[in-house]
Amino acid sequence: MATTYNNLYLDTRKRLKAAGVEMAQLEARELVCFAADKTREQFFRDLTLYASKEVEDRVEELTRRRLSGEPVAYIIGEWEFYGLPLDISREVLIPRSDTEVLAERAILLTRAAGDGARVLDLCAGSGCVGLAVAANAPDCRVVLTDLSEGALRICKQNVRRNQLNARVTCVQADAMTAPASALWDFDVIACNPPYIPHGDLANLDVSVRDYEPWGALDGGEDGLDFYRAVSARWGTALRLGGTLIFEVGIGQAPDVEQIMAQNGFENIVTHQDTRGIWRVVEGTANH
């Protein structure tokens, strides 16, 4: 029986909602748009039109994949962060709204540093944080770094997709080791490292555990390995008075504050996300 795009969307939303998907409305729209090869604007324009049998079958296939646990961002191969469209693959974590606090702080600090500010996105993944900074602080220069070659491929795709080639470069680097001599003199280092305790990985939601890259999740036995390494080794990459900013997991902020203080960082400040969770810790390098 023929169905309109609106009814196809409503049925998909109902099924996702019944399965406990939090963002059922948004995800249903994205699945229908992807299946029909329509932009959001075209989707809303065509709500009253009838979908073809091929589109119906495609939506059914995609919805089944989502209901089995596969995240929508991996199904459609893209996601939005801080207003930027980003290519996404299973080589990188899916950008989350929690991370917008890290991006916001990095943007504000970069603007405060003035024209020509230099920013490093360490453990960049998709490049979402560094690209948000570049797009919203137009006089800065940004370097995206990750150890994963797959992640760097996605970073480069997203630099091109958002037409930021002139001010953003991509470099392979291991956050657990000291920076190469070329990586120095930054005003801001923003880092969203792996921070899930190793023993907790097996208990993560299936959409994370079975699909997202463990290398971008595993923070060691207590989840703090990367905070220790970066605080100890990457301060030398900052200019005097430069700022290191971390995203942290729930309950980790006090430990990260202590780690930064032990490594000589000053003016340590912690910020909450929109849910009231202490999500970002930052400190300045004055040594």
From TrEMBL:
* Reactions it catalyzes: L-glutaminyl-[peptide chain release factor] + S-adenosyl-L-methionine = N(5)-methyl-L-glutaminyl-[peptide chain release factor] + S-adenosyl-L-homocysteine + H(+)
Q: Return the broad EC class.
A: transferase
Domain (Release factor glutamine methyltransferase N-terminal) ranges = 12-77
Residues binding S-adenosyl-L-methionine are 146, 192
Alphabetic keyword roster:
Methyltransferase, S-adenosyl-L-methionine, Transferase
The GO biological-process annotations, alphabetized, read as: methylation
Q: Which GO terms describe its molecular function?
A: nucleic acid binding; peptide chain release factor N(5)-glutamine methyltransferase activity
The record's listing under Gene3D superfamilies reads: DNA helicase RuvA subunit, C-terminal domain, Vaccinia Virus protein VP39
**InterPro entries reported for this sequence:** DNA_methylase_N6_adenine_CS, HemK-like, N5-glutamine_MTase, PrmC_N, RF_methyltr_PrmC, SAM-dependent_MTases_sf, Small_mtfrase_dom
Segments forming domain Methyltransferase small: 115-196
* EC number, as in UniProt: 2.1.1.297
| Residue sites binding substrate per the record | 192-195
Q: Which Pfam families match?
A: MTS, PrmC_N
Query: Which PANTHER family does the entry link to?
Result: HEMK METHYLTRANSFERASE, MTRF1L RELEASE FACTOR GLUTAMINE METHYLTRANSFERASE
The text of the family note is: Belongs to the protein N5-glutamine methyltransferase family. PrmC subfamily.
Q: What does this protein do?
A: Methylates the class 1 translation termination release factors RF1/PrfA and RF2/PrfB on the glutamine residue of the universally conserved GGQ motif.
Q: What is this protein called?
A: Release factor glutamine methyltransferase
Q: Which gene encodes it?
A: prmC
